[in-house]
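Lecture notes, unit on binding sites. The following record was shown on slide 14. It pairs a sequence with adenosine monophosphate.
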Amino acid sequence: MTSTVDSFAELGLSESLLKTLSEIGYETPSPIQAQCIPILLDGHDILGMAQTGTGKTAAFALPLMETIDIKVSKPQALILTPTRELAIQVAEALQSYAKNLPGFHVLPIYGGQSYTIQLKQLARGAHVIVGTPGRVMDHLERKTLNLDHLKTLVLDEADEMLRMGFIDDVEWILEHTPEQHQTALFSATMPEQIRRVAQKYLVEPREIKIKAATATVAAIRQVYWQVSGMHKLDALTRILEVEDDFDAAIIFVRTKTATVELADKLNARGYAAAALNGDLNQQMRERVIDQLKSGALDIVIATDVAARGIDVPRVSHVVNYDIPYDTEAYVHRIGRTGRAGRTGNAILFVAPREIRMLRTIERATRQPIAPLTLPSRADVTNKRVADFKAKVAEVLDAEGLDFFANIVSQLCEEKDVSAEEVAAALAMMAQEGKPLQIAGEDPAPRPFREDRGDDRRPASFGDRERKPRFEDRGERPRFEDRGERSERPRFEDRPPRSERPARPAPAGDMVRYRIDVGREHGVEVRDIVGAIANEAGIESRFIGRIGLYEESSTVELPAGMPAEAANALKRTRVRGVPINLRPDEGRPGGGFSGERKFKKKPFADR
Ligand code: AMP
């Protein structure tokens, strides 16, 4: 790892937080944490270039929590996130870090959620607010959110907020916060507009960037599996089972808790596995490594630090069960295999949101990492059958079968069955508890799409897969339930709406709405899609044709919109203008007063 800091204690965090981190299984700070935490604790502003998976949430959350005065039941920190999913996830992370901070209260506020509930929660008081820009702005305007006690403001995934058309809202919020506060801005990329915001609103910020040092990796077969449709644990055992040259593996996870959990689960599935983490003393650590060397153990589940320097030639596989924080950690991890001239295999599990990290690793190592197709049930069965046959064949070659052949003949005679049937019964007996066929279904294949995905579950607890999305369950498109994880619309990689095939006018399950923003407000189609997707929780692909006119626009949305979402959309702003969404009685280009005189064709119909 790039981090030269081995413990959180070196960073200046309080005893209470250190205790919590140890309890939740964080062993060492990630590089971004090692860099950011001391700077933020010193009160400086930060401009951080970091992506998901680097541990940036804790990097800003931990110092921010040190500043909270529990006795003051007022928002002392505001974290802006581009989506409701991220708002919820960040709030969850803060709540987990507040384990030993009784009375700490963090509140996520986002579009699409009932105002009544939010107002009640705000009135009750919260120390930290995590919210999407539109809804935060709304509460500030209504004076239902008061930032007079604000000490810290965090802009998380600023480039995403820009991409989704929220940058004006973000600037509005920055303009309406008290002067005296610390600001941290995190962004995976640093486009010009974000730099401009940073220059305008950050005070002498320290710039933090995780260096993506180029590194060479030994000749190791590198593959990745995009986590979807199946629990990581099931995927892991499937993969390991069909790997031809499997001998022993080191599996990397992020927390020491996860090392123990995964070791227990693998033991329960019949693997000889053990955890290797920082809680083990030197003697215990050496014992685990010796057992791996001798073959008493086949799998060791380790954290980065605990696995430093392991040199066990029989390690045929390294599995990055949780993605590493940076390239250096990746290179270090996979260097545990392919030793002493043997071939090595490195398997990387990548959640949809971690794709950027995968690409960073590929760039830095200058090597492509090939996608891995998960073995199907049939593949696993075939492998098990092949192994079984090989074992039987070995016995067939052995001496001393006559005695048993005689027993088989007797059985055939006594039971009036064929030798084949007796053999089948014996095979069944031999495989009792070790079925050759696996139960369950193969997950439906899902195309790899870089422009989607919002799997923000803690990577260390990857077994808790997200529930299948509704399209996987074959249901009709619908409005997202509150709190359900959804995909985040990202527009940069997609063809513009106007280039996508035109859809017929709304029929049956689509309804056309009118909104009060148009070209004269400087609005683009993506701004409308971003705002609606976020505020009403409608996946962007279910947003139909958008007609962009001078003063207003039309948008088609699935029928059956719940009142809550409709209300949210009435108040939603695009470029600072309330859109006032309502059913459109007019016809595009003609039915509305503003457009009638122009009779223009929609600018960006699709
Ligand atoms: P983030 O990049 O903030 O989304 O964090 C990614 C994942 O890493 C989350 O599941 C965190 O719980 C986990 N994580 C962050 N920091 C650490 C750490 N120092 N040790 C172990 N896990 C961590």
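Take-home: The first strand starts at residue 46 and ends at 49.
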